[in-house]
Amino acid sequence: MTPEHIIRYIRELYQTEDFIPLHEPRFAGNEKQYLLNCIDSTFVSSVGSYVTRFEDMVAKYTGANFAIATVNGSAALHIALKLAGVGPGDEVITQPLTFVATCNAITYCGARPVFIDVERQSMGMSPDSLLQFLSQHTTQTEAGCINKRSGNRIAAVLPMHTFGFPCQLDRLVQICTQFQLPLIEDAAESLGSYYHGQHTGTFGLLGTLSFNGNKTITTGGGGMILTNDAALAQRARHLTTTAKVPHPYEFQHDEVGYNYRLPNLNAALGCAQMEMLPRLLASKRALALEYAAFFASSDHELVTEPDQTLANYWLNTLIVPDQSKRDLLLQQLNAAGVMSRPIWTLMTKLAMYQDCQAGDLTQALWLEQHVINLPSSARLT
Ligand SMILES: *Cc1c(COP(=O)(O)O)cnc(C)c1O
After folding, report:
1. Domain locations in the chain?
2. Atom of ligand 1 at shortest range from CA of 102
3. How many angstroms is it from 76 CA to the middle of ligand 1?
4. Whether the predicted model's global pTM rises above the 0.85 cut
């Protein structure tokens, strides 16, 4: 199967000879109407009924008891980690194969990431690597779970559901419970993805979503904190609204808070997008099935959802066994106006994180060299 075959096939899927982006938003519902309503109401900023409505829609959809909207997914992660107790001098175990926002949020808390490997199939945090790291490199003390090498406290475990493919959450939850560590899920890419019938982002103490322009649904920019804990939800709301003590007119703030609240304008877009979500997911699943059938006769492998999970197929992921063929495919697709991307450069190779402790990263290194994302926008007719 040559790059030319693949280019022709993708052009047929999208029925166009124009540039094909990797993932573009679809506004085919009530987006314009809700935005106009929002403008007419004059409540365009962080107070307004669309914010509450959007939060209720996401809570109901994911099954989380509480959903707190934020300006973006990075801010949601920052607050989630802070609420889990991550602070200066702490360490957070995460995966090197992720978007940089995961690690930056750890840094915003004054903590450092520790990197362990991902699994080949889900491309998310490997439970085996987590168990091995915690068993070999940590000790339980009164101060918590201590990293024997650095002497620092491990404050949380932060897996990420890569491209919407859920990690093995039952094992991750079990290991975190065993070592008494809070589990925070970076579910930025996995709205509409389920593990054993339960929505991703609802397994840990807290989970976070992103509604950036390239995600499954978008609010322009936006994010959400999910939790089942009423006290944490209240703290999340407080911290994201400058820690203002509620009062009709007085300014009283009881700690250093953040201006992280999602504006009503963005939430209006979010309400319309949530209404569209089932259609978007159905279209993306159909697209993934077509890609899978097309590549079945090649030596390339389209990544499909692990057993007992439902993926949102945010970005279709192709594994090309021969790295030079992968590189050639990337170059030719992009040259032909069919946008495709490699997976992220591993976090362990970025200047800010190259000195962080890392375990054996065999799978992450392999995936970095063999993965390519294909155009994945929903096709709505
Ligand atoms: C998109 C994304 C985020 C959050 O990004 P924002 O642009 O801040 O909304 C966080 N983690 C991962 C893995 C992401 O893909």
Report:
1. 31-274
2. 11
3. 9
4. yes
